[in-house]
Design goal:
Layout: H1 8-11, H2 17-20, H3 26-34, H4 40-46, H5 52-60, H6 66-72, H7 78-86, H8 92-98, E1 105-107, E2 112-114, H9 116-123, H10 129-135, H11 141-148, H12 155-161, H13 167-175, H14 181-187, H15 193-201, H16 207-213, H17 219-226, H18 233-239, H19 245-253, H20 259-265, H21 271-278
Antiparallel strand pairs: 1-2
Helix pairs in contact: 3-5, 5-7, 7-9, 9-11, 11-13, 13-15, 15-17, 17-19, 19-21, 20-21
Length: about 280
């Protein structure tokens, strides 16, 4: 019997990864390939599996050797290459090789092709600064958006991306923990509500921008702001009188809300507000 012809009866009751990795059923081999307990030599063997979904599992396993990842980075399947790019052990050299990958997959929700490998590369914490800046200038909206989410992105690229035509790029800059306070102030006035919501949620958004967001025309922005634990009591007191019960609930749940405000909200006409406030009064 060959190494790839172990039938179900031959592996029943087995828990040895080396044996299971030779199972006839590729689902069993894939399960081994995902396992954090799989020995490196087993993963190296499975990296040559004939089924792409087994190889994809190996490519995504944080225990896979850098040598196996380098081989899988040249795999015929784009899904395998994308998994390599997302692997925390992927080296900057591997990521540089994948940065120009042209693999696309159709996203039926967005009704457009997605460059999955380049998006994965742009998100990696191991990417070099030069390659990340390169992907930040990509023609594809979602590749740039992925780059915008990476904390390693340079300040120079961020300064340009806050004016990007695609709102998700700006939204990811607003979410990025490395974004400067100056840029967060700029994004607090963005024309897209979702970007302002994200800016309101960012704990690094400066007080001046938070105060401006407290007067935003959208209740969704004010609700997000009311949940920011850096918000001062004065603004929370103002938001406690907002017409939306969801904003008032957020105020009641904020640890910085003054006791006097909580007492007032505990008698709110809305039951959800009452419940949130009464749980913190006393």
């Amino acid at each position: 019997m060959s190494a790839t012809e172990l039938k179900s009866d031959d592996i029943n009751g087995q828990d040895d990864p080396e044996v299971l990795a030779k199972a006839w059923d590729w689902h069993v081999r894939r399960k081994v390939a995902w396992s954090a307990d799989a020995p490196e030599k087993v993963l190296d063997a499975l990296a040559r599996d004939s089924v792409q979904w087994v190889r994809e599992a190996v490519a995504g396993n944080a225990c896979t050797s850098s040598q196996a990842l380098a081989r899988l980075a040249d795999d015929s399947s784009g899904f395998v290459r994308a998994a390599v790019a997302l692997n925390p052990r992927a080296t900057s050299e591997i990521l540089e090789m994948l940065a120009g990958d042209e693999m696309v997959d159709y996203d039926s929700t967005l009704q457009k092709n997605r460059y999955l490998v380049r998006e994965a590369v742009a998100k990696s914490p191991n990417i070099s600064a030069s390659i990340l800046d390169f992907l930040a200038r990509d023609f594809d909206d979602h590749v740039r958006s992925a780059a915008a989410s990476n904390p390693r992105l340079s300040g120079e690229s961020m300064n340009k991306m806050v004016k990007d035509v695609f709102w998700e790029v700006r939204n990811n800059i607003a979410r990025n923990p490395a974004t400067s306070e100056e840029l967060l102030v700029y994004l607090s006035a963005d024309r897209i509500m979702d970007v302002r919501v994200t800016t309101a949620q960012n704990l690094r958004t400066p007080a001046a921008a938070l105060a401006m967001l407290a007067t935003d025309k959208s209740w969704e922005v004010r609700e997000a702001l009311a949940r920011n634990v850096r918000l001062e009591g004065r603004i929370l007191e103002e938001l406690a009188g907002h017409w939306s019960w969801m904003v008032r609930v957020a105020v009641a749940e904020n640890p910085n809300t003054p006791q006097t405000v909580l007492e007032r909200l505990a008698e709110d006409q809305d039951q959800s507000v009452q419940k949130a406030a009464r749980g913190r009064v006393g």
